[in-house]
């Protein structure tokens, strides 16, 4: 996007992305965490014959890790929205 800032390495600041892109990224992280840990649990079940516990524990760890990232992203978004709201209030006071 033309209005996104780039740092010295050519990377784009994640805060400058569109909100739907950031939310989509968080959703993909959640799905990847659940899928990855579930596959790991499935492999453990097949390798050690511990079915279904490896898959269940893997899926649970994936959900916990994915939701941790989701909550963290929501808190950052909330803080950014609060800062933007504060800035707009200050702009209105100056007028």
Observed structural traits:
mainly alpha; 76% helix; 0% strand
Tell me what the structure shows:
The protein has 95 residues and is mainly α. The chain has a domain at 20-54 and 64-94. The chain contains two helices and no strands. The two termini are 31 Å apart. The mean pLDDT is 85.
Number of helices: 2
Instruction: Compute the CA-based radius of gyration.
Output: 20 Å
Question: What is the H/E order?
Answer: HH
Number of strands: 0
Strand content: under 5%
Q: For the record, give the distance between the C-alpha atoms at the N and C termini, rounded to a whole number.
A: 31 Å
Please state the overall shape, judged from the principal axes of the Cα atoms: elongated
Major sheet details: none
Q: Percent range for helical residues?
A: over 70%
- Average predicted confidence as pLDDT: 85
Give the structural class: mainly alpha
Low-confidence stretches are none
In short:
The chain is mostly helical and 95 residues long. It has helices at residues 19-48, 53-94. The model has no long low-confidence stretch (mean pLDDT 85).
Protein topology:
Elements: H1 19-48, H2 53-94
